Amino acid sequence: IALEATDPKALAAPGDRLIAQMLKGMWGYQEGAAVDAATLDFEGVFPGAVREVNVSKSHAGKSLEPWLKDARLAWAYPSAEGESSGWWVIGLGSSLVESLTATLKDEANVGGAKHPWISMGVVRPAALAAAVRAAGWPIPPEMTHAFEVAQGVESFEWALMRSDGGSIRGQAKVRFGE
């Protein structure tokens, strides 16, 4: 997932803190796990560098094991050369984050004109729902219907860019399972 940021350098410290808190929750209260948010907080240092944390030993990572061996969460706050704006890029693995960053830095060529990307990403709700079910995690009653719908959506992809005159141009694809 990539989201446009007006100042990725300023976003890096609070973004790192937010991800550290989320990662801490992924380990829960595992016996012998010396994982705390401060250990995982990169504090916004070197915002353009890709941060990567192996989450395969966390509760969430273990439930993804049938689909993702050696799961790693990666993120960065890149900006194009000489630009103050940029993106917050988050994905599974540093190679995905680096590839998405390269795509974002390379503006979209539409009708012979260059247009900056705003956001792009892919989510796979059916795979996530299957992982939640396989892990035996409880589904809150108010989320039951949304969970059932998610099981039928194989993937959702989007890409948005700025267009001439300040408008936003984009596309979204929804792929439903059988």
Structure at a glance:
The chain has 178 residues and is an alpha+beta fold. It has helices at residues 8-27, 37-40, 59-63, 94-105, 125-135, 144-150; strands at 2-5, 51-54, 72-76, 86-92, 108-110, 113-115, 117-123, 153-162, 168-176.
Uncertain stretches of 5 or more adjacent residues = none
Q: In one word, what is the shape?
A: globular
Count of DSSP strands: 9
- Assess the beta-strand content as a share of residues: 25-35%
Distance between the termini: 25 Å
Order of helices and strands: EHHEHEEHEEEHHEE
- The DSSP helix count reads 6
Helix amount? 25-40%
Strand order of the largest sheet: 2-3-4-1-7-8-9
The class by helix and strand makeup works out as alpha+beta
Radius of gyration: 18 Å
The mean pLDDT is: 80
Largest beta sheet, briefly? Answer: 7 strands, antiparallel
Topology overview:
Elements: E1 2-5, H1 8-27, H2 37-40, E2 51-54, H3 59-63, E3 72-76, E4 86-92, H4 94-105, E5 108-110, E6 113-115, E7 117-123, H5 125-135, H6 144-150, E8 153-162, E9 168-176
Antiparallel strand pairs: 1-4, 1-7, 2-3, 3-4, 5-6, 7-8, 8-9
Q: Top keywords for this entry?
A:
178 residues; alpha+beta; 7-stranded antiparallel β-sheet; two-stranded antiparallel sheet; 6 helices; 33% helix; globular
